[in-house]
Amino acid sequence: MRFFMLTTLLLVAAINVTLACECGMEGSSGRIYKGTKVRANKYPWLAHIRSFADRDDNSFGQCGGSLIDETHVATAAHCVVTKDGQRYKPENIDVFLGRVKAFSDFSYPHKVSKVWFDPKYDSSNLSNDFAILTLSKPVKFTQTIAPVCLPNNESDLTKLTVSGWGLTSANAKSSDDLLEVEVDFMDKEECNDAKKTIIMKQNDIPIELAPLIRTEPVAESHMCAINKKTRGDACSGDSGGPIMHHGDNGRWYLMGVVSGSWTECGQDKDTSGLYTRTLYYKDVIKSIAPNACWQDL
């Protein structure tokens, strides 16, 4: 009897953990260059973030984000820091969830009570470009609002997906429709080579001198990606939004957040996008958002 009761308790505990860790499932119905329109509520964790330096001024900064549990949204540090290096006040940040259109409806924002960003964030190279917003009230999960999964590993990454409401090209306006683009993961060696190439181009250094040129490696907090065929990538306004892996189990995993690039989107075919790695901040995320769901890919 004791064995049966213990087994039952363990089974119930396992079921509760599973139920408490639902994440990354598509719904019912930070910049995208050469992207395609997303069907309604495909990514129910997508957050549209507006940051106001002054509430009396109608202008705001636009970013994306990802809901990782009932009260926390992951985004980029440069989305929550003003041009003079100051943190946006929590009361001046609005978070919109369950949205398809970015600019059609300004009602019912989720308020923010706390802003955390990496104190080592460097705006000159966007290293350590990561932030977490704490919502004032927990959200109720629905078919249109739900959290994304977080990855325990980064093994065997090839194709990833970026989604957001940013510019569709360097000279375009931000998209009202949520867009997505598939990108190819680049390992660090490939990413460092791409960085060297663009720096040489920007400084008119002949390519034959490449073996003699030494450039600072890409930050450990960053990963690189671009669609190698279409050159599709994130663009201005997509910052802080997700770069995701679609698992064989049908779940989506937040591999990182849109950070930036070395050029304007679409200006140079050799320039990849920079994305802050989720896994780099695993310990921080666990301490701030303990209910976030971590799973193996």
UniProtKB/TrEMBL annotation:
InterPro entries, per database record: Peptidase_S1_PA, Peptidase_S1_PA_chymotrypsin, Peptidase_S1A, Ser/Thr_Proteases_Immune/Dev, Trypsin_dom, TRYPSIN_SER
GO molecular function (one): serine-type endopeptidase activity
Domain Peptidase S1: 32-290
Keyword tRNA-binding: no
One Pfam assignment: Trypsin
Family: Belongs to the peptidase S1 family. CLIP subfamily.
Protein name according to UniProt: Peptidase S1 domain-containing protein
Protein source organism: Tetranychus urticae (Two-spotted spider mite)
Gene: 107364358
